[in-house]
Amino acid sequence: xxxxxxxxxxxxxxxxxxxxxxxxxxxxxxxxxxxxxxxxxxxxxxxxxxxxxxxxxxxxxxxxxxxxxxxxxxxxxxxxxxxxxxxxxxxxxxxxxxxxxxxxxxxxxxxxxxxxxxxxxxxxxxxxxxxxxxxxxxxxxxxxxxxxxxxxxxxxxxxxxxxxxxxxxxxxxxxxxxxxxxxxxxxxxxxxxxxxxxxxxxxxxxxxxxxxxxxxxxxxxxxxxxxxxxxxxxxxxxxxxxxxxxxxxxxxxxxxxxxxxxxxxxxxxxxxxxxxxxxxxxxxxxxxxxxxxxxxxxxxxxxxxxxxxxxxxxxxxxxxxxxxxxxxxxxxxxxxxxxxxxxxxxxxxxxxxxxxxxxxxxxxxxxxxxxxxxxxxxxxxxxxxxxxxxxxxxxxxxxxxxxxxxxxxxxxxxxxxxxxxxxxxxxxxxxxxxxxxxxxxxxxxxxxxxxxxxxxxxxxxxxxxxxxxxxxxxxxxxxxxxxxxxxxxxxxxxxxxxxxxxxxxxxxxxxxxxxxxxxxxxxxxxxxxxxxxxxxxxxxxxxxxxxxxxxxxxxxxxxxxxxxxxxxxxxxxxxxxxxxxxxxxxxxxxxxxxxxxxxxxxxxxxxxxxxxxxxxxxxxxxxxxxxxxxxxxxxxxxxxxxxxxxxxxxxxxxxxxxxxxxxxxxxxxxxxxxxxxxxxxxxxxxxxxxxxxxxxxxxxxxxxxxxxxxxxxxxxxxxxxxxxxxxxxxxxxxxxxxxxxxxxxxxxxxxxxxxxxx
Length: 758
Description:
alpha+beta, 3-stranded antiparallel beta sheet
């Protein structure tokens, strides 16, 4: 570390040059909020989904749902229907709209004589036509909840967008254009759908990103000002951290990475985390100045005594982030990679910029001002805390043991249910719109199941196969509210219904194979080939079950699927096909589950690596075991609070443990590093602990408060994931600080007992 002072000017020029290089890289950085990037390309389920998409289009994934509310008692009002028709037709003209289906353009088919004819589902030529349509619609519930809500107050429309724009900026332009038309119409409306939700999701992320960065900068300026009451004490740390952030973003730009749904958190997180090195360096430097040393000597001692510890704390924090590299989800891996790089960048920049800057500033500008860092009660109160750990060690340990036991029991109460839009607040308009369609229709979550024939002698068109598929549909429909299935079963039943002049008793699978074959022949003759392509392959070996349900959650879906598989396995005759859940929604849910558990697996890896680092540093098994206790306890206590308040174990809350562990271990390393120095200089255990508390306690508290305040900012977010990341990371840091300053000294007194240090 002494080389940093010897070569501080050349190193400063290195920082300047690299900043210019990385600064240009920022100009190459793009924004990409593609959800499909979260699908692992080598995963068997993702590969199956690709094959499934090649056969069948997931139309429901590209739908924008709109409901227009009638000012009258129901939608059967000529003025309302005429106005609605004009609005919906105008909206259909926007670029990117493939088609639109509404009650106003939907055509029913009826058999007349030997042929078939179409007629309007809702005829609005005049009030008499509207009244006839009312009677027919109220008598026929086939499309209830699809085109008209159950209370007959809302007229529904479904806009199918071009799949090619689904993950592009054009999707956002179209969503906003549709919303602008609805707003300008003056009509009461509800709008939702996966494309629209994604647009609003992205907009919220962009807004919150700017908000949190601004709030973090303001917060750090305020905290640093009250800590040092010196303009340089505010400017220098800001320059160091912002330079590290610029390097990280520049690296992303140079390597072709973009800002996405996960790594947008890098900016506020790195900005806050980067302050730790700066505060420890500055506080230690001022400590040496107060001891009467000149600037050069004070800085040399600072780098010598805490240089290794701040490197190790940066390294362990980076390890916490780097543990995410085991994830199979690309954005999670990249987040871990760039976060780890950002922490190391900030460390290097801090140890180059701070010595260059602080050594040139008159010490009196720091030492003779009334700042938090200079408050006289630091020594007095830290001394009291030290005395508390000496005289009440057993009570302290008992208190923490009881907390751990209670938290351990509460952890088992953590819900594991995840939802597609779990990050959206309960009162957010996005969620309210989604809930509207769940209550008044069939929900937005696409439900897709691939059917693969396992008996090569059978085909989807066989009556026995169709009856088994019908059993699957009936079983599912009895347990969850599904929209009408798009499937070979329903195509055959509808064809049979039409063939027999729309008599209700014929809405079924025909009694003989000959009748089924005749219906298929008739479908091909009457132009039904496109319909058949949507539900089965030409060779009859693959098919689909497609529907929509409410966002019931991953646990509920898993239970439903398990019950279905068990039911079908208990049948007497063999099943002629296998069922494979698939689709965008299913893959998203599976990724949520995978991310959740892979993050916890990454935490275990980080734990082992950090334990190795501490073991190497102190060469003592006892110190190693003691050092890990204050870092396990905060995670257990945070898990207990999650169980107590019923916070779900999602990808976001699992990420908390990884981030918090990497940060929390910093204070432990700072404490033990100073403790080792004191012991190696011949101090007794008590004296070494007292000197450590006085020498590092202040910096630990200040940095922890800055970290806590920075993460608490995130609770202003409307996203549940961001809120939980902020709240529980801050909570974990609080627990970690208490464990390091209160429990760790007690444990050191128990295991060290004035033995000669190695």
